[in-house]
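hi! just following up on the protien thing from before. the input was this:
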Amino acid sequence: MTRTARILSGAEDGLFRRPGWGLAAIAAVTVLFAAQIPGLRMFSNFADLLPQQHPYIQIHNEISDTFGGANVVVVVVEVDEGTVFTNDTLRIVYRLTQAIDLIEGVDHNLLTSLTHLNSRHTWLSERGDLVSEPFYLPPRSGVLSEEQLARLEAHVLADPRAYGLLVSKDLKSALIKATLHEGQLDYEKIFQELQSLRGQEAGEGITVHLTGLPVLVGWAYTYVPQIIQIFLLTLVVLLGLLVAYFRRPYGVIIPLAGVILSAVWGLGIMVLLGFNLDPLILVIPFLISARAMSHGIQLVERYYSELAEVGDAPLAARRTFDSLFRPGSLGVISDAVGLLVLALGSVPINTNLSYYASLWALCVIVNVLLMVPLLLSVLPKPRDAGVRHGLMRRTLGVLGQRVAGKGTAKGILIISVLLYLIGGYGSSLVEIGGSRPGSPLLYPDHEFNVSARTISERFPGSEELYVIVRSDKRWGLKRPEVLAALSDFQNHMGLDPGLGAMKGLPDLLRQVNRLLHNDDLRWYRMPNDGLTIGGLMFAYMASSPIPGALNEFVSPEESDANMVFYYKDRKGSTVRRAIQMAKNWIVEHGTEVEGLRFHLAGGTVGVTAAINEA
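and the predicted 3d structure came back as:
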């Protein structure tokens, strides 16, 4: 016997000579972990859902405060009859916009809506000045005249930044988009506020749709009580199966005690390590506890078999430990290693899960595989130590004999290989990413997915892809060759049949150039010198009384430009096609202009692409 084996054998002898000491130590650790549980926090962090090492996410993190991120709430007001250009509907859109702007966590500079101050109509005054005003402001009289409503509709139809993006092409829907700061947000509170606003404003002839990741997480929070109910119901079912199988108190109570200890230890470990419990992965801790119960059942089953043979409870418990502790520990370690493999990924939520879940699983070695035999060694000997052959035991025995037969085993292996081949072929057909608008976490007819489909149909540009163009010089974006490259890139992306719209600095400059030349379409073109380009940019900034009029297009240093491409959904095929088209152009033309580089990718489409590729 090796030295290590002698040490382990001596420790085992000591434990079973004084089992109370071992149980007392386990109880003390359990109390320590139980005291930590009140500090457990349950929340979702948007950054934890993203593969932080992916280059798209690194770009996303750099630009989210300037150009916007992917933690977006989309609200759409839809009318059944007529258009949104009525006083009642515009007031609803305005009230929703103002209320959403007041929600904690909303980035006020990145809120877009037809009735927001940042959404402005720009025109050339009689004096030749470029001026602008909000599309909509609540009139003092309370209502807009028919002439004013018609003028507002005409202004929206003439502005590509509003028509199709803020107001649907059929004029029956208006969109409000709010970007939330990333971090530890109270998604449950945000969702409740949005639901309350929808309840206040939706009515006869008016439907309010909500979508976006914060809304999805909010829906997940609403199902937490149902998840807990399902867990409790599952425990009741397991309890019933234990009663039906064992029909003895030890066979029911001891496995449940192992589950409770496992849960207390696991939750305590999470608090001590500083991890939060995300409602999106609640099922994983439950599965670990279920594995703990299975080990407990095996131990109690083996204990009764040993007890029937030797007739001495402490000896039966010791023999149970000797026969099952090593294979059980091997199984637990295999589970823990399998969970730890998740750490190889780059998504923080999975990495964090791998750390605490693997430790949680390893604790089963102590709080089940060790605790149960020690507990059985101190408990009174059961009155009826014989093995009961109930209906379930007899059924399982018959099935075991059938499966273990040589001919049956071959048949099962053949069927397994066939199923493996069929599954392998089927997996090659599975589309990476979403296959439809909305979330696969919810049923297709769920309110969230219905809203997502409706918004996708009404607004072909509800999902955004950001491509960041960087110059190595300050104010470098004013060079004509830079803007020519941006225009060429836009023309290439415009060949995508799934593209709904696009927005970028070249479009803005063409529009301003046309406006300054009496709205003459012949001047809807790009100037060919930097001074004129700089003048157009200044004229646009001067036309708006709100600071940062160009912030949605360029950085304050005018070295970074945000090219925005709008898509109607984030399906896997849409995202892959968009990213591949951008990559193709960048590979072929991305380095033609000295000091200019194109970087993928931000926005909801860019973040989704990173998640799909991770």
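The two ends are 48 Å apart (CA to CA).
Residues 78 and 207 are 5 Å apart (CA to CA).
cheers
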